[in-house]
Write a structure and sequence with these properties.
The protein is built from 29 helices and 20 strands. The strands form 4 sheets. Strands 3-4-2-5-12-1-13 form a 7-stranded parallel sheet, with helices on both faces. Strands 16-17-15-18-19-14-20 form a 7-stranded parallel sheet, with helices on both faces. It starts with 8 loop residues before the first helix and ends in a 5-residue tail after the last helix. Strand 16, helix 23 and strand 17 form a beta-alpha-beta unit. The protein is globular, with a radius of gyration of 29 Å. With about 750 residues, it is α/β, with parallel strands linked by helices.
Length: about 750
């Protein structure tokens, strides 16, 4: 402690006590003992260079618990902290509310910044080119490019989120910044560049807020160069706070994996050259137009040759490439369908086939897929080589107007060639049997409106060693926090999945703490299981679930979330309840009807509403007050066993002599289950019922692990004839909480 005499721990902790500074300076501030204890843990991690894991229930005030130590530390020692979150909502809360309020209340003089990835910003060079090309090519995106050009002069941040509309992907391709096409200080717009302005602001900031994906990108860049003391994606830093840390393994798996799909390949090639309504579009036709405008009369032989190459040779090669792309991905789709052992459920939108060594000797793979992939790779290399040779030829021509007027478009073209190189390399990887036991590879098909999109995915099976090498062994302080890090009140699963074990950490000290929510769940929540529901394996489960969902939402008079584990079940329920809802005056909504934000806004503002959701609606959804008073969890959220990465991780645990269901599947599902449960209570005036229709909670041994992971609250496990009247009585008895809520007055 002697090296940190300036850091007065008691004085810092006193800030959040009932008679502390924040209670006087921040409107609505409430003392929470859990918040003070969590702050103490984080201060220890800063002072003693530790890793600390903290589960802090909803309402603990975890944001202030980590922001205050980070701000004070930065003020005293000019030592930067990176704060990483999973959701945009939490990032916006930190930068728009929590950080400004704290800095003002504590009278601190320091800077914070929200760092976004490069592809979130407008590229002024590309925007100028796209705007200039409007006279050459009128496209569907022309109107949006015109709008963005007009708005850009008065934009402060220059990011996509600052625009008053959401540009189409095709428009953003034309104007968005890309690392592959960035010339950095050589760009004529370098000083005005929105992205580099943001990076310069980050250099001056002591607190950097970002998302997990960008954090992974920064770590990967640092690992490539061994650079931990200079700027990579972020300026140098030694302290890291990871909120919503239960997503860290998934984001690391996604980031360090590789993915290629048919639409992405077509999109990149289309940006180079394409035809719409018998007109040529893309970077190569623009280059051709520029060459023709520079040499208005008869162009020199070298230029005429390049123009001919673009018009004839590359055009013919592109048509062959397009045909081969479709043929290759159709071969992959046929291969999937040919080797799939189990028929997929009717209406299944997404199919996945994990590639095993046995698949690489399958006749259909050897005779159809391999030749198709080889030919596609060869054509991509040829197309890339021919385009690159054009650039080399233009470089050799010593004519200043030519170099000046074509430089920008050639930078964009070369950037797209880098993308083609990456895609060609991934295609090559899929030709060889899997050599690395820590990798999992699969083919994935997604049904779209017009055709099926095929993905090729190569991912890490275990990211614990990567996270340990890139993150946990490199930074002085690491705080990992979330409302859901434990399973059965233990951190063992989280530690093992992320590599926070003594074997990997070696001498590094790591601590763990768990703080329950300050809310009175016994008073505010009733948790129920209808014991007359059949098991999910029963053929009558779906029909019975529709009846029980209806009874639950009638008992709550709507204002209910219904959480599913599959879109198929969700859509079946929607069809089963739509007519009843209309007759009884309920507004029934489902995920997919509109974007997430619009759906939630409508739900909050519509009394007697019911929202059916899956996947993303299990977490990160914050509906406080009586707008949400019932959550129905239809099934326990186990991962789909046929998921390639789940299969591979299951086999790895089995081969090590473990029990994959208890060691992996159950803990994963418990974390998700706790997230679903957590949608209901967001403040001390909220009240409501959580109903789970999955009776495995009572009939299977592992059900106790799920139940023990929930907060202590009123519970009723009974037939529907008893459960739903009890719900009505609960709402009657707890209505006083609604009346006490200041926001309802």
């Amino acid at each position: 402690m002697s090296t940190h005499q300036q850091f007065d721990v008691e004085r810092i902790l006193k800030l959040v006590r009932p008679d502390g500074h924040l209670s006087k300076m921040m409107r609505g501030f409430e003392y929470r003992p859990q918040q003070e204890k969590m702050m103490s843990n984080i201060i220890d991690a800063y002072l003693n260079n530790q890793i600390t894991m903290i589960e802090a229930g909803t309402g603990t005030g975890k944001s202030l618990s980590y922001l205050i130590p980070a701000l004070v530390w930065a003020t005293l020692y000019k030592d930067r902290t990176v704060i990483s979150t999973h959701t945009i909502a939490l990032q916006e809360q930190l930068v728009n509310k929590d950080l400004p309020n704290l800095i003002k209340s504590l009278n601190l003089k320091l800077k914070f910044v929200l760092v976004k990835g490069m592809n979130n910003y407008i590229c002024l060079r590309k925007l100028k080119d796209a705007h200039a090309e409007l006279s050459l090519f009128q496209t569907e995106e022309s109107r949006e490019v015109e709008q963005i050009h007009a708005l850009s002069e008065n934009m402060k941040e220059g990011s996509r989120s600052e625009l008053p509309f959401l540009p189409t992907p095709a428009t953003w391709d034309q104007v968005g910044a890309e690392s592959e096409a960035c010339t950095h200080s050589e760009c004529p717009y370098y000083q005005q560049c929105f992205f580099f302005k943001a990076r310069r602001q980050a250099q001056d900031a002591q607190i950097i807020v970002a998302n997990h994906s960008l954090l992974m990108f920064d770590l990967a860049k640092r690992a490539e160069t061994g650079n931990y003391s200079e700027t990579a994606i972020f300026p140098s830093y030694r302290r890291v706070i990871i909120d919503e840390a239960h997503h860290l393994e998934g984001m690391a798996t996604e980031h360090f994996g590789l993915r290629l799909h048919r639409f992405e390949l077509m999109r990149i090639l289309g940006r180079l050259a394409s035809e719409k309504q018998s007109k040529a579009h893309g970077k190569l036709p623009v280059l051709k137009e520029k060459l023709q405008s520079i040499y208005k009369k008869t162009p020199p032989r070298e230029i005429a040759s390049i123009i001919q190459k673009i018009s004839i040779d590359l055009h013919a090669l592109r048509l062959a490439l397009n045909d081969q792309i479709h043929h290759t991905f159709e071969c992959l789709q046929h291969f999937m369908e040919g080797v799939k052992q189990h028929p997929e459920p009717v209406g299944q939108e997404e199919l996945k086939l994990r590639l095993l060594n046995s698949h690489y000797s399958h006749p259909q793979w050897l005779n159809e897929a391999v030749p198709a992939i080889q030919k596609l790779s060869a054509l991509l290399k040829e197309y890339r080589h021919d385009i690159s040779s054009i650039d080399e030829a233009l470089k050799r021509i010593e004519y200043v107007p030519l170099q000046e007027q074509t430089k920008s478009i050639r930078v964009d073209i070369l950037g797209l060639l880098v993308r083609i190189d990456e895609m060609t390399a991934l295609l090559g990887q899929f030709l060889a049997p899997q050599p690395d036991p820590n990798k999992v590879r699969w083919i994935e098909s997604q049904k779209m409106k017009t055709l099926t999109n095929i993905h090729l995915v190569d991912a890490d099976l275990d990211v614990s060693k990567v996270l340990n090498e890139f993150l946990f062994s490199k930074f002085s302080t690491i705080v990992l926090c979330s409302a859901t890090l434990t399973t059965n009140r233990q951190f063992d699963f989280f530690r093992h999945r992320l590599g926070l074990t003594p074997e990997l950490l070696q001498k590094r000290i790591s601590t763990e703490s768990m703080y329950a929510s300050p809310f009175d769940y016994q008073k505010q929540v009733m948790f129920g299981i209808p014991t007359d529901m059949p098991l999910p394996t029963d053929e009558n489960f779906n029909k019975a679930s529709h009846d029980h969902i209806w009874k639950a939402v009638e008992a709550s008079q709507g204002n209910a979330f219904v959480l599913f584990t599959s879109y198929t079940m969700l859509n079946q329920c929607y069809e089963a309840l739509a007519e009843r809802c209309q007759e009884k005056g309920y507004t029934l909504m489902k995920q997919g009807d509109a974007n997430r934000h619009a759906l939630l806004t409508m739900f909050k503002n519509t009394d007697r509403s019911i929202l059916l959701g899956t996947s993303s609606f299990w977490e990160g959804v914050d509906v406080a007050g009586d707008a949400l008073r019932c959550v129905v969890i239809v099934k326990l959220p186990f991962q789909v066993p046929s998921e390639p990465i789940v299969q591979a991780r299951t086999e790895a645990i089995e081969s090590a002599g473990g029990n994959p269901f208890i060691e992996y599947s159950v803990p994963e599902a418990i974390v998700r289950f706790k997230q679903g449960f957590g949608r209901l209570i967001r403040n001390k005036w909220d009240r409501g019922c959580v109903i789970c229709l999955d009776t495995r909670l009572l009939q299977k041994q592992y059900g106790k692990l799920f139940l023990d992971s929930l907060p202590e609250c009123g519970r009723l496990y009974a037939p529907g004839t008893t459960l739903y009247p009890a719900m009505r009585e609960f709402y009657r008895k707890t209505y006083y909480l609604v009346r006490q809520n200041p926001s309802s007055n």
